[in-house]
């Protein structure tokens, strides 16, 4: 399966959110479910466990639109979300730079 990376045109009106979340089963589902219930598209997601093993860092590429503030407030109320912040210092093309590592990967049978 090939990685889906947003095109440059779609990156122009997006922003990156960084979340620090509890690292356990169901956390990703809770975060993405919040966006889905509000019909708010996630353009890209990156989630990496932190060295402590108890938390993960998530980067979410989302549309920069007025209702994003409300979604952020709702994210902060999720039990598994410990911290939410905008990351204007990170270039949105971080996902583009990672795509080559995924694009040639083939699915591995269990």
UniProtKB/TrEMBL annotation:
Tagged with keyword Amino-acid biosynthesis: yes
Cellular component aspect of the GO annotation: cytosol
Pathway annotation: Amino-acid biosynthesis; L-valine biosynthesis; L-valine from pyruvate: step 1/4; Amino-acid biosynthesis; L-isoleucine biosynthesis; L-isoleucine from 2-oxobutanoate: step 1/4
Enzyme Commission code(s) on record: 2.2.1.6
Swiss-Prot/TrEMBL GO biological process terms: isoleucine biosynthetic process; L-valine biosynthetic process
Pfam families, alphabetized: ACT_AHAS_ss
Annotated GO MF terms: acetolactate synthase activity; acetolactate synthase regulator activity
Domain ACT residues, every copy: 16-89
PROSITE patterns per the UniProt record, alphabetical: ACT
Keywords for the protein's UniProt record, in alphabetical order: Amino-acid biosynthesis, Branched-chain amino acid biosynthesis, Transferase
Recorded coiled-coil stretches: none
Keyword Cell membrane carried by entry: no
Enzymatic class: transferase
Sequence similarity: Belongs to the acetolactate synthase small subunit family.
Name the record gives this protein: Acetolactate synthase isozyme 1 small subunit
